[in-house]
Amino acid sequence: MTEAGRLEPAAEEGQLDAALRALAHPRRRAMLRLVLGGERTATELAAAAGASGPDASRHLKVLREAGLLTMRAERTTRLYRLDPTRLWEVRALLDGFWDDRLATLKVVAETMASEATERRGTA
User: Which of 12, 37, 98, 106 would you label with 88, given CA atoms 20 to 30 Å apart?
Assistant: First the structure.
């Protein structure tokens, strides 16, 4: 960790990679969609994902380890909640790709417009 309490860049990338891997599975995405509305039990999340108990447990573990979910125990029930921090990091990464593509598209469009103007001027 750095002095500010943030993870080292390599550790942050590892956590971001884990989040992307976690998001790659449709059952885990179904679970995340459900917790967008608030805390849910493991049973509710399993049902939403169409997963058996053990399969749901594995998916929930992946989501927790990726930093996408938090869990708290209330007596014998485990309640899961979205931790939006990692999702914001994933979004920032994807936005960066999109911003790069838009910047490239802008340059191409401006170049084409400039060339068209030059052609009209010499014609």
Answer: 106
What HEC string does 87-112 produce? HHHHHHHHHHHHHHHHHHHHHHHHHH
Degrees, nearest 5: CA angle 65-66-69: 80
- Note whether residue 45 is domain-resident: yes
**Per the domain annotation, does 1 fall within a domain?**
no
Residues 69/83, Cβ–Cβ less than 8 Å: yes
Rounded to an integer, the average pLDDT of 39-62 is 95
What does pTM read for this prediction? 0.71
90: CB partners within 8 A, 6+ apart: 16, 19, 20, 23
